[in-house]
Every structure is written in structure tokens, then in C-alpha cells.
Amino acid sequence: MTLSDTVDGKIARWLNQRTEIGPKLDSIADAAMYVCLALSLLFLRADLLADEAIWIAAAIGSFIAAECFALLKFGKLPTYHTRTAKTAWLLVGIAAVNLLIGGPAWPLHIAMTSVIVANLESGLLTYSLKEPISDVTSIFNVREKQDLT
């Protein structure tokens, strides 16, 4: 899943096939993958997920907070696609595979921490930007796309 999510964006940029709706569709697909992954893990490893509920709740809460903040400020959900968020998604994928093969919970802790960090960056971007933009590498290079407030 993570690989296809990475490859499709690179192919679109390589073929110069970027559109305004592309990042929005990518964000919807990301959310759908997270939901499917969570439901699958809940079905297959509910025993372990119950023990790790605080980590998962913190990650989900940070996501909801970042999305709501952007919705309140800009009237729409963010489509930043930062490197931090992509790294978090990769770590979530690794943690999920680890859980499915009966591995320990610590990779999940790292993954959930990375999700929280990615959502904090999203919130900082929303706070800093005057208007919404898509496909930002990180908060550190956002000046190339738009002046910060």
C-alpha cells in the first residue's frame, strides 16, 4: 500500500500529470488505507490493540485535531503530504506487518509517535500559512511556496 502511494505521485510528477484534485484524492486514499488497516488489525489482533489503545488514541486524536484546525482556518482539509507524513505512513506499515506476524509492540509505539509528529507538523503548517497549499515537503521549505504569516 505504502509503495503504491509513493509510486503514483512520483509517476504523476515525472509525466507532468499533476492536477489540483490529485492531492485531494491522494489524501482521501490515505485516509481510506488507514481505516482499512485499522479495521484489519482490529479484526486480526484485537488482543494486542486493546493493550496499545492509548498510543492509537493519541495518534488518532492528533490527526483529528490537525484536520479540524485546517477545516476551521481554511474551510477545507489539508493536503500537505509532507515527508514527515510519508515517513509516518511507512512506519505504520512496518508496524502493522510486525503485529500481523506476532512481533512486539514497540514498532507500533514508534509508528504512533511518528504519526503524532506528522500531525503536529500539519498543525504548524496550517497555523503558519495564509492560505492552503498542497504537496509541501516540510514546514522548513514552505517559504518556497508561500510566505508565512
From TrEMBL:
A GO CC annotation given for this chain: membrane
PROSITE patterns given in the database record: CDP_ALCOHOL_P_TRANSF (PS00379)
Origin superkingdom: Bacteria
Gene Ontology molecular function: any one: phosphotransferase activity, for other substituted phosphate groups
Keyword Ribosomal protein set for record: no
Matches recorded under InterPro entries: CDP-OH_P_trans, CDP-OH_PTrfase_TM_dom, CDP_ALCOHOL_P_TRANSF_CS
Gene Ontology BP term (one): phospholipid biosynthetic process
Keyword line: Membrane, Transferase, Transmembrane, Transmembrane helix
Membrane-traversing stretches: 28-48, 54-75, 87-106
Family recorded in the similarity comment: Belongs to the CDP-alcohol phosphatidyltransferase class-I family.
Protein name per its UniProtKB record: Phosphatidylglycerophosphate synthase
Organism: Rhodopirellula baltica SWK14
